[in-house]
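Morning F.,

Quick status update on the modeling queue. The single chain you submitted on Monday has been processed. Sequence for confirmation:
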Amino acid sequence: MQKLRLRYTKRGRLRFTSHRDIARTFERALRRAGVPMAYSQGFSPHPKVSWVGAAPTGVASEAEYVEVSVVEQVDPVALKLALDDALPPGIDVVDIVQARGGNLTERIDASEWRIELDGVEPAELAKAVELLLSAERVEVERLTKNGVKTVDVRPAVVSAQVEPRSSDAGHDGAALSQPCGILMTVVRQVTPTVRPDDVLNALRVVADLVPPVPARATRMAQGRLDGEGWLVDPLQQDRES
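Structure tokens below.
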């Protein structure tokens, strides 16, 4: 049995697609591409597909990960081409490597997010970010299926800075208004998970910053934090083995 690790994107209108629907779409594409999938045992066998840290509904991503197990040797380059033909626009396979051991989940403990805030002056955003980073605790309320829950966002925020605006188009292709603040932030995976919406709510708490239109969030990378706060590519060890 061979295990392959894939990095893929979730772009455009697919940001509003649930992870369950993304998973179903991906598994249909694997069948269409003729991938010799390995299946579980039991009365209801299912393909051995393992998802790692899926992005929440409503956000885009350049760095989603999935592991698939196959019963025959598969060429990663050929598989990438076949899957790209079978997948809908917005889901693009960026990279495929053969797993060389280890646990992929253990190689990911943080995400880098790009959050575009239309109608917010970059200087105003920078002041709010400064207040967030200087605070010891920033509690926000989150509505869950079990009711309202209070989450301290600050421990999860590793870094945050305002990116200079370089064009009139956002990362996901949507037009940006004038003005527009762009926040780049690295968020550590903690329990409970701190999402982009929680970071935005934290800015509201510390600086009363409320964008006039919904913000657009894109996950740019996932990985393990190094000693300087940078993310290490989780597939790097497989390439080097």
